[in-house]
Amino acid sequence: DYAQHTTDPTQWYRTRQGGPYEEYLDWLRRCFREVARVLKPGGHCSVVIGTVLYKGEYYPLPYHFVGLMEDLGLALAQDIIWHKVTGGVKRAGVTIQNPYPGYYYPNLMTEFILVFRKPGPPLSQNRPETERERDRIPIDDLFKYELANNIWHIAPVPPNTLDHPCPFPEEIPYRLILLYTYQGDLVLDPFAGSGTTLKVARHLGRRAVGYEVAEKYVRLAEARLREPLNLRRLLIPRYERRPWAPHHLQSSLWDDEAGHAAR
C-alpha cells in the first residue's frame, strides 16, 4: 500500500477528452477511485489543483474536487495555498484599462494544495522509535517561515526549463513528502509528467512509483531521476505599513493631517 500520493492532475483543457467539464470530473473520479483504493489506511493524498479559467469562464475545480474525494471516502486534512509569487496569470491590466465597477480582473497568483487522509491509524503507530526520531520534522527556517503557515510562497518553474507544459516546483513534493512520510515509505504519482515527485522521493529515501501515458515524458522523467535536487532559496514575504485612505476620502484626510501638522 502507498503511504503518500503527491500529484498534479492533467489539466482539463489539455486532456485528450476535450469534452465537457462534467466529463473531466467523471474522469478524475475514476482515476482517484483507484488512488483511494491503493492508499494505505492512515496515508495521505496531496493534490495540486487550481480554479480553471477557460474561454472566459470560471470552473471552481478545487471545490468540486473536495466533494469528489469525500465521496470516495477520503477526508480533507489540510488546504494549503500555493502563492506563486513571480508567476500566475496576469489579468489586472483589464481593470487598469477599464477602471470601473464590474471590470475587476485580479491576477491569478495561487493554486490549492489539498491534502486528504484515508481513515486508519497514524503512520507513526507501531513504528520503531529510531525511525520516528530519524524522520522528525526539523523546526528550522523552512518550518518557521513557511511550513508553520498554510500559505507557501514558491515561484513556478521558469519557462522553457523543462520540455513539459506544466511542471511543478521540486519544493512542493519535497515539503509534502517530508511532512507526510517516513524513509522507506512508498510514494505514488499517478500523473508523473516530468517525474518531479519521483525524483524528490528518491532523494529523500522513499520508494516511488509513477504512471505517465506520454512516452516523451517517460524518457524525461527517467533522465531527471539521475539529476541532483534543485531546491531554490526561500521566498520570504515582508510587510510594511503604508499611509492610505479610500480614494473618495483622500483629499479631506490629507487636508486634516496637514492641518494637524501645521498646528
| Low-confidence regions | none
> Termini distance?
75 Å
The strands making up the biggest β-sheet line up spatially as 7-5-6-2-1-8-9
Characterize the biggest β-sheet. Answer: 7 strands, mixed
Average pLDDT number: 89
Number of domain units: 1
What's the overall geometry?
Answer: globular
Instruction: Output the helix-strand order.
Output: EHEEEHEHEHHEHEHEHH
Please give the oligomerization state of what you see.
Answer: single chain
Structural class: alpha/beta
* Helix fraction by DSSP (H/I, runs of at least 4): 25-40%
Roughly what fraction of the amino acids lie in strands?
A: 15-25%
Label the CATH architecture.
Answer: 3-Layer(aba) Sandwich
Q: What is the structure about, briefly put?
A:
With 263 residues, this protein is of the alpha/beta class. Helices cover 34% and strands 19% of the residues.
Layout of strands and helices, then pairs:
Elements: E1 2-7, H1 21-38, E2 39-49, E3 52-54, E4 57-59, H2 61-71, E5 75-83, H3 92-97, E6 110-117, H4 129-134, H5 141-147, E7 151-153, H6 171-180, E8 186-189, H7 196-203, E9 207-210, H8 215-224, H9 250-262
Parallel strand pairs: 1-2, 1-8, 5-7, 8-9
Antiparallel strand pairs: 2-6, 3-4, 5-6
